[in-house]
Write a structure and sequence with these properties.
single chain, alpha+beta, Beta-lactamase, 8-stranded mixed beta sheet, 3-stranded antiparallel beta sheet, 12 helices, 11 strands, globular, disordered N terminus, carboxypeptidase activity, Beta-lactam-related, protease, hydrolase, Beta-lactam/transpept-like
């Protein structure tokens, strides 16, 4: 496995600004888990429990979060632990009025959406409706830009397709926040871009376009929308009541970034951003829903062990699976994905050796989720 920082996983989905706006230094507001099991330590407990005589790390999970949000406009929610003993902790603000973030708040999750999309593709593979070697144009014959591209190439970013996410397109999206994009309109944009990285299967290069195409495959094969597939295949079976594609989902907390009007998402329609992102990054969710999703992936509730192995393995040795990345973070093996969209960042991790899950959701781009995850894992 490679170090996470060496992978192209921090790609901003929509070239989000890197700092929050109107960043006064508020009093830090925090919330603690609403439900704790007998095995779960409170958020302000030391990182290591010294009751067995072992060393106790200085500080606590809550302390790490409070330090991360000190002086910024937004905040962070995290979930850390093993199934049945997950700690949910929060610090910072949910809006410009100073409302405290709660552990069950909804966030935009950016490219973490890609893992959901990959799962739905793998379900279709299991159902015999396509294979990883199926050529895209067998299903979408009019999508000539994807000639020679196979399903596998989409999921492991070796398609050679140019990434539609580039500064010019971001400006187009922000010129009309209310516009509703279709996947075909996004692909028409791709056809106008300079060629990508060459023939399919040759070179790995992260491209959001791959998952836009994957979403088109899902809709074409099933005859249902992405939202309908997400509901019937993942959210309803798992009881994920706060997870959806943005246009159909619950309202997320305020996001803070300089690139946004007035530096925050309040009063800003994300219709343009979320519909253009679609299967590549248009979802919203909560920490608890993401923990349930990760646990379901790991224990075979959504896909078979064979499919999970295909998604989470690293056949090329570059840390790239199918809709997932594998890496070493603070000397611990992990598999997961990160995401970013204007005003929000996120990361979901499974640690195979310990069965731990780590979810970090931030609503301020001065608080990158991956850095918070690294800080937690370096102390835990």
């Amino acid at each position: 496995m490679r170090a996470w920082s060496s992978l192209v996983v921090g790609v901003s989905l929509l070239f989000a600004g890197c700092s929050g706006a109107e960043s006064v230094a508020p009093d830090v507001v925090t919330s603690t888990p609403q439900e704790e099991t007998a095995q779960t330590l409170p958020c302000d407990a030391p990182y290591a429990d010294a009751s067995d005589g072992g060393p106790t790390a200085e500080g606590s999970l809550q302390g790490t979060l409070e330090a991360a949000v000190d002086g910024v406009s937004g905040g962070v929610v995290v979930a850390v632990g093993t199934p049945g003993a997950v700690r949910y902790c929060a610090a910072g603000r949910a809006d410009s009025e100073g409302e405290a973030l709660a552990v069950d708040d909804v966030f935009r999750i950016g490219s973490v959406t890609k893992t959901f999309t990959a799962v739905m593709v793998m379900q279709l593979v299991q159902e015999g409706k396509l294979t990883l070697e199926t050529e895209v144009t067998e299903v979408l014959p009019d999508l000539s830009v994807a000639g020679g591209v196979r399903v596998r190439h989409l999921l492991d970013h070796t398609s050679g397709l140019a990434d539609y996410v580039e500064p010019g397109f971001d400006r187009t999206l922000r010129a009309d926040w209310d516009r509703e994009w279709t996947a075909q309109e996004v692909m028409d944009r791709v056809g106008e871009l300079v060629p990508g990285t060459g023939p399919p299967g040759r070179v790995h290069r992260y491209s959001n376009t791959n998952f836009v195409v994957a979403g088109m495959l899902i809709e074409e094969i099933t005859g249902q929308s992405l939202a309908q597939n997400l509901q019937s295949r993942i959210t309803v079976p798992l009881g994920l009541s706060h997870t959806a594609y943005g246009p159909d989902g619950p309202e997320p907390v305020t996001g803070f970034a300089l690139i946004l009007p007035r530096g925050r998402s309040e009063g800003v329609s994300y219709r343009s951003l979320e519909t253009a992102a679609g299967a590549a990054g248009g979802m919203v969710s909560t920490a608890a829903d993401l923990v349930t999703f990760l646990s379901a992936l790991d224990d075979g509730q959504l896909i078979t062990a064979h499919s999970w192995e295909a998604m989470s393995s690293d056949p090329q040795g570059n840390g790239v699976g199918l809709g997932l990345f594998s890496a070493t973070i603070v000397e611990r093996d992990a598999v997961g994905h990160d995401g970013e969209i204007h005003g929000y960042s996120s990361i979901t991790l499974l640690l195979p050796d310990s069965d731990e899950v780590v979810v970090v959701l931030s609503n301020d781009q001065e608080v990158p989720a991956i850095e918070v995850a690294e800080n937690i894992l370096s102390r835990a």
